[in-house]
């Protein structure tokens, strides 16, 4: 059997075993996946991003974020996925201000899709591993004009590539930055889920699990199909 066929067979066996085990213990719970998989995070942000809130006083005392601010944010993203039984680890490698990525739309907004395409070009030049996701954060409105109907501008919290993690394609996400709030990480989590190949970032199903099994099996870890899929040694 060729290597690709062997991998698919192994994944099928693992999924069957995990499914039977989970259904025996709790038919509503999913087993943990992704242990051993590391998401390398590369961050860019523009001058609109501040660790203060959006009030007038906050804008007057605007504070540029540091790499530690983004480490805190992605710790929340990591906890979010762990709570969904996706045990990936997020490692913020760097955080840099860059005014050349955002594509202006109107006076004070950014074109969401054009900014994502520009970010992908930056990521292609600066990403060395396929387990890296490049994020661009902004506090400017992310707008996109609809191509049908009344062509009203649509406001996005995030926009990203789809199912590109650990593939031959670039993984990138444009995300609205929120300095405060219990849900401030939701945009980054939603964008990351799409990069993983999922269409939602909460309440994953068995089909979502199968998608993650296939995606994580391509990550740079030789024993991933055993360790990373089952969530333990």
TrEMBL record:
Keywords, alphabetical: Signal
Keyword Signal: yes
Signal peptide from the UniProt entry: 1-22
Protein name: 28 kDa Metastriate family member
Species assigned in the record: Rhipicephalus zambeziensis
Lineage: Eukaryota, Metazoa, Ecdysozoa, Arthropoda, Chelicerata
């Amino acid at each position: 059997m060729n290597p690709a066929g062997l991998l698919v067979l192994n994944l099928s066996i693992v999924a069957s075993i995990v499914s039977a085990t989970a259904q025996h213990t709790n038919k509503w719970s999913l087993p943990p996946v992704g242990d051993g998989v590391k998401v390398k995070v590369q961050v860019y942000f523009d001058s609109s991003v501040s660790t203060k809130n959006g009030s007038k006083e906050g804008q007057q005392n605007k504070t540029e974020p540091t790499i530690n601010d983004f480490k805190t944010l992605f710790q929340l993203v990591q906890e979010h996925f762990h709570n969904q039984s996706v045990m990936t680890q997020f490692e913020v490698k760097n955080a840099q201000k860059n005014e050349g990525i955002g594509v202006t739309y109107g006076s004070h907004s950014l074109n969401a899709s054009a900014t994502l395409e520009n970010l992908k070009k930056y990521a292609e030049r600066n990403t060395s591993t396929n387990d890296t996701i490049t994020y661009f954060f902004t506090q400017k409105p992310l707008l996109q004009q609809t191509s049908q109907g009344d062509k009203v501008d649509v406001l996005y919290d995030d926009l990203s590539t789809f199912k590109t993690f650990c593939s031959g394609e670039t993984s990138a996400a444009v995300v609205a930055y929120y300095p405060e709030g219990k849900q401030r990480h939701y945009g980054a989590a939603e964008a990351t889920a799409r990069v993983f190949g999922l269409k939602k970032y909460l309440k994953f199903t068995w089909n979502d699990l199968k998608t993650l099994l296939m995606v994580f099996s391509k990550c740079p870890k030789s024993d991933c199909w055993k360790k990373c899929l089952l969530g333990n040694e």
